[in-house]
Structure to design on (432 residues):
């Protein structure tokens, strides 16, 4: 027993420490994104905000009313690349008006457009309120409105939110059968912010999530 | 057959006490050796076996990275355009120098009737760009979509594409045929109506032309 204890003690005392795993710090990860010409999104979970940035400059901040994980949350700061935006209701595709409508647009020194109807365009208010953002690196982000002003609109959204959560929960059950499943990050925002957020994120935008 | 008190007598024996004493001395020795080899560690020595993941090494000091981030930020005057709210800002560092109402891309799409697989989406490109050129009294070289949209035939001569007086007094180019320019349709400023270019009112356009040098950073989001 004494010999055994001594041997195990010697083994422990002389064991080399495990090699340090070099994981980039959150700031380092952001630095690598800020070096590019791309816009990037920082999801700052401790501060309940999503921040759109470029070159390290804050362009717009989206307050997050609620943050929730379905499945195992990511353990440490990670970067992701957006692949698709999957809205519940896609914004309508807009086509320019037919040529016959445009003949009125006589070009002169004066503003001749005063009598014309406003041209068709996609605006932020046309963007969906509830949607999924799919990333190539194994995470799905669900964006949903926190509440809507109208009763029926709110009821419908709550139902949609509940359905989305059930679907996400079912998909994370795969893990119980030994299959890898991606975690779902649910972000609840004010309706106007949810629409602006949809406008702001474009594939293949890089994201940085600080858990 | 053993006596019922034989076990009790073994634990009270001097031999057993000696073993316990030596064990404690060995454990104390191991602890001392471990702390001596890694004086900053606050972990208990046997925690090594509990925690499977190796220690995480932070690869740079936050202050250094913050300074690097500052280094990456645009130098001098730069322009920021919000396509959602159709607003333009001229900034220098943290200071806001000028704001303006703009018009950006409509997001509309147009199909080329000659080629079914070809079309255009009239969106303002987003990302980090630079002001590449500054032009006074610009003329518009109309691309194919402008003729298709107006139901006209596409001219064969390049001079038939040139139209003057529609882009305002100045234009600032940022690549791929995209410009910040003026407009005849000032009523539509603040809305998403353009074919991808950025329109400004005359006063704001002149400010930009006079104060934003070529090479300045342009961020569109």
């Amino acid at each position: 027993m004494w010999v055994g204890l001594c041997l195990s003690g010697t083994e422990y005392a002389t064991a080399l420490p495990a090699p340090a795993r070099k994981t980039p710090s959150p700031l380092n990860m952001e630095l690598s994104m800020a070096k590019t010409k791309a816009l990037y999104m920082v999801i700052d979970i401790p501060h309940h905000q999503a921040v759109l940035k470029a070159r390290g400059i804050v362009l717009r901040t989206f307050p997050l009313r609620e943050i929730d994980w379905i499945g195992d949350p990511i353990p440490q700061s990670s970067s992701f690349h957006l692949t698709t935006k999957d809205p519940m209701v896609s914004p309508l595709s807009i086509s320019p008006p037919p040529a016959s409508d445009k003949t009125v647009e006589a070009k002169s020194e004066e503003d001749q457009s005063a009598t014309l109807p406003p041209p068709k365009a996609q605006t932020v208010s046309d963007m969906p309120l509830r949607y999924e953002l799919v990333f190539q690196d194994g995470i799905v982000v669900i964006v949903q409105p926190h509440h809507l002003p109208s009763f029926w609109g709110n009821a419908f959204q709550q139902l949609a939110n509940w359905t989305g959560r059930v679907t996400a929960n079912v998909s994370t059950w795969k893990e119980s059968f030994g299959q890898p499943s991606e975690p779902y990050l649910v972000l609840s925002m004010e309706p106007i912010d949810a629409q602006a957020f949809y406008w702001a994120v474009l594939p293949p935008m890089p994201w940085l999530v600080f858990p | 057959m053993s006596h019922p008190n034989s076990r009790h007598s073994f634990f009270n024996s001097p031999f057993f006490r000696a073993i316990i004493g030596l064990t404690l001395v060995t454990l104390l020795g191991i602890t001392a050796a471990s702390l001596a080899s890694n004086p900053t560690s606050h972990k208990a020595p046997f925690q090594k076996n509990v925690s499977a993941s190796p220690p995480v090494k932070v690869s740079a000091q936050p202050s250094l990275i913050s300074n690097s981030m500052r280094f990456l930020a645009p130098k001098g005057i730069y322009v920021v355009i919000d396509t959602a709210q159709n607003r333009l800002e001229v900034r220098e560092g943290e200071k806001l120098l000028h704001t303006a109402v703009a018009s950006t891309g409509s997001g509309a799409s147009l199909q080329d009737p000659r080629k079914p697989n070809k079309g255009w989406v009239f969106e303002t490109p987003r990302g980090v760009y630079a002001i590449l050129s500054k032009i006074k009294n610009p003329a518009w070289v109309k691309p194919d979509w402008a003729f298709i949209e107006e139901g006209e035939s596409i001219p064969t001569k390049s001079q038939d594409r040139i139209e003057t007086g529609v882009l305002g007094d100045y234009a600032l180019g940022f690549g791929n045929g995209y410009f910040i320019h003026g407009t005849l349709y000032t009523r539509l400023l603040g809305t998403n109506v353009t074919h991808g270019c950025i329109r400004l009112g005359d006063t704001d356009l002149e400010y930009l032309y006079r104060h934003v040098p070529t090479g300045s950073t342009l961020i569109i989001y």
Q: What stands out?
A: Chain A has one domain: 25-89+124-210. The mean pLDDT of chain A is 78. Chain A touches chain B through 63 residues (CB under 8 Å). Helices of chain A lie at 2-14, 26-34, 99-102, 151-172, 191-200.
